[in-house]
Structures are given as C-alpha cells and as structure tokens.
Amino acid sequence: MNTITSEFLEAKRLITDPLADTVVAEIISSGYEQSINEVFMKLVRNSSYSPEVFKGLPDKVYTLITNYFEESGKLPDWADPDLILEGEKVFSQFGPEIFMLLNVKSLPLCYSCAKGSKVLYDTGRLTEHNGKIDPLARRLMETAQMVMDVLHTGGLAPGGSGIITMQKVRLIHASIRYFLKNEKINMSGEPWDVATYGEPINQEDLTGTLMSFAPVILSGLKQLNIELTESQIDAYSHCWKVVGHMMGINADLLPDTYQEGWELATAILKDQAAESMEGKALTASCVDFMKYIIPGNLLESVPEYLIWYFMQDVNEAVGENLTDFIGIENHESKKDQFIVTITRFFTGEFSHFDHSKVVQKLTEKFNKVLLHAFLKHYNDGKRVHFLIPPSLQKNGRTNLL
Questions:
Q1: Are 326 and 279 in contact (CB under 8 A)?
Q2: Cα–Cα distance for residue pair 243/387, rounded to 1 Å
C-alpha cells in the first residue's frame, strides 16, 4: 500500500459508495420512497437473491435493484478460492473466540472513533430506547451475523450467503446516508454536518470497521495465545480483502497482508480516535447488553475487564489510552482481584500461570457462554433468528446446540 497520511485519510472521508448511493437516491427522487421499505422487507424475507424476488415493484425500482445486485455481486478477479477456503477454516476452528473478540475488541475500537460513532448514535440503532435493550441487540446481531455469513464455508462463493448479506448492508448504509443528509432525523434535529464529520459511513469509517474485523481480530487471537501459521494469517486477511471489495471500499484502502492491515488500522485510529459522548454511550450499551444476556452475576465485571485487556496492544500501537475515550476504566490495579474472582469458575490454583494464560482460560468459558446467551436471546421466541453456520455447530469445542 502507499504511505498512509492524514491528508489521504481525510480525503477518504468525503467518499462513500456511489453504486449503492445512486440506487437509493434514484428510487427516492423518482417518487418511490415507499418502495425502499418494500425492498428491505423482501431482502429480510429472502436469504438468497433472485430477480423474481422483486417482481411486483414499479418497473424503474425493479430495474435499479436487479442491476445493483448483478453488479455488486461480482467477485474481484484477484479473489483466490484456495485462500478463501483456508480463511474459512480459520473461522470454523476459532469461531467462538472470533465472536467474543468482535464484542470486546472490534466494536469498542470502532466506538473510540468519535465521528464514526456519531453516525451510529444519531441513527439510534445502537442505543436503548425507553429502557429496551432490543435495538442494541438487533444491531449487534446484524454485525455478528454478517461476519458469520461471510466467513462460513461457501459464504464468499458466487451467490453465497455472505455476498447477499453484504449487498443488503450496502443498501442499508446508502439509505442511512441519504436520510441523515436529507432529513432532520439525527439527535440534534439538524441535517448531517459534512464539513465537520465527513460523509456518513464514508470510506475511512468503512475501512476502519473492516480492519477491526481483520487484523484486529488476528491480534486478539494472538493475545489468547492462539498461534496461527503464516498461511492461515494470509488466508484470513485475504478473505477480508475480498469482503472490503464487495462492500465497495476503494482498492487503495485494501491491504494485502496482516502487517499492512495493522498499520492501516492504527493510522485510522490515530486520525480518528477521540473521546466522545457517543462512543461512551455505545460502549456502555454494548457492556450492558453482555451483562443482560449472561445469566447470574458471576461474570458481572468480565465484559469491561476484557475490553480493557484486549485493547492494550492497540493502545500501545496508537500511543493513546483508547479505553479512556470510551469510558472503560484502567483495570491494571485489578488484575489480582480479577484472578481471585474467576477462580470460582475452576478447580485448582492459578498462581503458576501468567496473566495472559488466566485470561485465556476464562475466555474459553466466557466465549461459549456469550455465544450461547446470544443465541438464546434471539432464537427463543424472537421473530428474527441468529443463524450459526453448520461448521460451528459441528465444532466439538462449542457444544452450543
């Protein structure tokens, strides 16, 4: 990749996703605004794409949507099926750990970026409403579901469920951009301030999120003492490069290697990380949700502690205490207390383990508890189901279903 400068990244804040944006804007400007909701309802009800799904829509809307799905569903010429397969195997083997890291490392890092957090906060999709936790649960579910859809076996094959999911997400992003910029629907009651914040869900923000799912997850696995081979790291990174392309991210923001991705992630955090009310509110909601779905109070302090622990390597790379920006207190002095607390889970003594080994032992239990609780919350009488790919259902370590 080229040298990443602040000027380069700032320019990317004014670029979005022209393909998806044009579809949404043309549908609405043509007087078919109500068709947007109908399109999304059809997408929600169907896990695969067929032009027949959109029969019955106005001709102009039908043409725009079907052309969009044909164009956005094309894999790049450089996509390597063998690398994708190996990357999917990494997810199959370490899916529970990746799911946990998504909640305690990836998303909190995204919330440390103040301008990007404002989009999430202003659209109200990640904060509680009238004391209800479901809006947060739904957004976390959507994020986790996309990761699982793209990384399960066949998810990135032509017509795979991961590709369909990404096509849906791009349209959702385009709709959010349109209404933030054209309607007074944010918390201040004013249209989106492009001069201050850049375009909503812009190229830099999209890339930062992509990096939180790729090199940041790989760094989290290393913190768990999971040593992947160079081949596995390359394959997992390649999968997310393909995902970035399919999400409409510019080619010059798609790293080829883990190291390039890590450097890009830290550059974006140096450019965008800042303390914000929105980032703190989103992190608090994420923590509250984990506490809410996990029964009992034995793990009450674990979510905040794990967020603090897994962000330490990024803090060092960026040179900032990003945890301060999102309202997570310093837990350095609480290590001994933490170890005493978690020994209630296990038999034996931990005095001979270093702290990273203790965290690893805890997370072996916590990641299963978290994923199982997530499944129960959304699949137990809820209208929207969270789907676990077969590769994880067969994984003996998870023992989920």
A1: yes
A2: 19
